Amino acid sequence: MNSHTIIIIARILITPLFLYSGSGKIINFTDNVLKTPFGDMLIGKLMIIFAIAIELGGSIAFIMGYRVKEISLLWIFYILLTSIMFHPFWAASGPQQAGQVIQFTKNMSICAGLLCFYLLAREQRKS
């Protein structure tokens, strides 16, 4: 298998996380809005709409190889922000803290993979 094929497979393998999350936000829109720090306010609704666009739109573009460098950076920023907002392990205790640490560190691992996609796309643009 050549490196181009492996890169396509890797892009396909990373997107189900975002596709699943984005489609879940559509299906359970109101519940997701209420989970935001702003609740049912307009800004909470806008946050979820932007999240859907980032997750679903980004996934489609990423699979197609369109703007991989930019989407990688966007997803890294998005994951860092949502991890701080929704997985505050530093504020939890007991078994809940362990679960939040796992979710937070898992997200940091995803960021590491996306950083590799960013660097690879940057190098491909140079050549």
UniProtKB/TrEMBL annotation:
| Predominant place of localization | membrane
Q: How does it sit in the membrane?
A: Multi-pass membrane protein
**Would I find Transmembrane among this entry's keywords?**
yes
Lineage of the species this protein comes from: Bacteria, Pseudomonadati, Pseudomonadota, Gammaproteobacteria, Enterobacterales
What keywords are annotated for this sequence in UniProt? Membrane, Transmembrane, Transmembrane helix
Signal peptide span: none
Q: Where in the cell is it found?
A: Membrane
Q: Which InterPro entries match?
A: DoxX
Enumerate the transmembrane spans.
Answer: 5-22, 42-66, 73-92, 104-121
Q: Which organism is it from?
A: Kosakonia pseudosacchari
Designated name of the protein: DoxX family protein
Q: Would I find Transmembrane among this entry's keywords?
A: yes
